[in-house]
Amino acid sequence: MTDIKTTPTNFIKNIVNEHMQTNEFGGRVHTRFPPEPNGYLHIGHAKSICLNFGIAADYAGLCNMRFDDTNPSKEDVEYVESILSDVRWLGFDWEDRLFYASDYFEELYQYAVGLIKVGKAYVCDLDAEEMKEYRGTLTRPGIDSPYRRRSVEENLDLFRRMREGEFKDGERVLRAKIDMASPNLNMRDPVLYRIQHSTHHRTGDAWCIYPMYDYAHPLSDSLEKVTHSICTLEFEDHRPLYDWVLDALDAYHPLQIEFARLNLSHTVMSKRKLRQLVEGKYVSGWDDPRMPTISGLRRRGYTPGSIRDFCHRIGVAKANSFVDIALLEHCIREDLHIKARRVMAVLKPLRVVIENYPSDSVEMLEAEYNAENPELGSRQLPFSRVVYIERDDFMEEPPKKFFRLAPGREVRLKHAYIIKCQRVVKDEATGEVVELRCTYDPDTRSGMSGDARKVKGTLHWVSANHAVRAEVRLYEHLFLKEDPEADEDFKINVNPNSQEILSDCLLEPGMAGAAGGSRYQFLRQGYFVADPIDSQDGAPVFNRIVSLKDTWAKMQKGAGNK
Ligand code: ATP
Ligand code: MG
């Protein structure tokens, strides 16, 4: 997988290059991917994963997998397991370096004791409301907590008793003693530890005080000898605190570098919001094929390679921006264009009887799988007197540019013959077209000498007696608006038609046993994957990954012409 080995040049690599030249960190590059196990990973995390593992690989360095599991009330092993399997599926390997911030709880506690001893941390009894009041605002400096001048002995005693469970949730906290007048609110004596009597998914009830992210994170990085601690832009204002914690303890000091998080059009990204979609039943679960989660994208049929390709193309910058979801779709088309077998599937069938074809005859037609990739080989397709074509491929009164089937018109059935529509059969009551009566031209079989005769339209089809019935699901964007978060309640922008389920589709016979997860192009309809969960042998269920219309390529072409 060469694409893992080199990531494009970006400002972070420039920093690393400089460090390599100056021998900062002794020529080492050591990164980490540090998710909180409070939900499933999404495509934004994929950007961070590709960046952290990619940079490590580029410099023959290491990347750790680390769970930032410092908030037991929101975290769960279910999430730990899904995160690990998602990172692995994306193609990355942390080898034996799987860590948990909770592994460091004892060390972090001892460091906190150290801070108290040098007068850099104190136990504070203000409640949340008071603490907020004392903190001040961007325009008003904070004021010192009345507990700020507690003696070292008293602080040590209280902190120990916090740990031992003597106090209730929220009754006391441990705070850093920094500067209540700092223009950076994060530096106004931030909380380092809070009391929380809840069971942790790894440490059980061993602890009732838990470290805050801003305290646990720099120390976890430090303990793991990380060199470049890469995080998203919202942590820029937290960097002084990151540095303060490590300097106050005279600990090994990685460099925190911030980059812009990925925002994708027509979707939301934060785990908190994705959870609302799951809990509000807007989707069937975290792995619903419409979700921007890694597990959703996997179920939708995206390949790991296409997601890595996407992460390469969007690059890494310092300014927040939106990426068009059409680029993600473009990447999977590019990946499958040559690789996928192209088969015939009629999604909304219309019956066609070929009147001059013998009723007891079945002919096997040779059909290559992908004209652009002969290596994929070919299969034999049965052709017979009754076939199905796509309902949309017929119009009784066609407009000028409609080159498909219409009364008196001819089209080619792909890999087969030219047929001509002679008559339309309608439901007497409703007037709906229920069947076409056609004739075929026996001299026009594909691949034979008669192949030379040309007509304007070529349609996909299946033989009625041989077709496999299947459920096919078509998807549209989960949100109608490009930026669903522009409204206070992003959920009002959910697309009510984001999923269309077609239960009477007909596929060519070879598709009966399509393995869950296998990907195809359905000719003229798009790329599809056999749903890895719902698909069964003999009763396949397919998800449309993307249609064939590449809006991204079109936009690029348009931009190039200007
Ligand atoms: P969320 O709001 O989705 O929970 P988070 O930042 O709280 O996101 P973490 O589990 O803490 O989620 O994230 C792990 C890593 O992934 C962090 O380094 C974080 O900066 C990065 N990350 C999260 N979201 C994005 C994104 N949209 N683009 C790029 N990186 C991201
Ligand atoms: Mg989070």
Describe this entry's structure for a reader:
The protein has 562 residues and is an alpha/beta fold. Among the domains are: 4-259, Rossmann fold (3-Layer(aba) Sandwich), CATH 3.40.50; 345-459, Ribosomal Protein L25, Chain P, CATH 2.40.240.10. It contains 14 helices and 27 strands. The chain has a 7-stranded mixed sheet with strand order 12-25-26-27-23-24-13, covered by helices on one side. Strand 25 (519-522) and strand 26 (526-530) form a beta hairpin. The longest helix has 16 residues, at 43-58. It is elongated, with a radius of gyration of 31 Å.
Mean pLDDT: 95
Number of strands: 27
Low-confidence stretches: 1-5
Bound molecules: adenosine-5'-triphosphate, magnesium ion
Question: How many whole angstroms does the radius of gyration measure?
Answer: 31 Å
Shape, please?
A: elongated
CATH architecture term of the domain at 4-259: 3-Layer(aba) Sandwich
Helix content: 25-40%
How many helices? The count is: 14
CATH superfamily of the domain at 4-259: HUPs
SS strand fraction: 15-25%
What spatial order of strands do you see in the largest sheet? Answer: 12-25-26-27-23-24-13
Query: End-to-end distance, in Å?
Result: 36 Å
Main beta sheet strand tally, sense and closure: 7 strands, mixed
CATH topology of the domain at 4-259: Rossmann fold
Under CATH at level 1, the class of the domain at 4-259 stands as Alpha Beta
The helix/strand class is alpha/beta
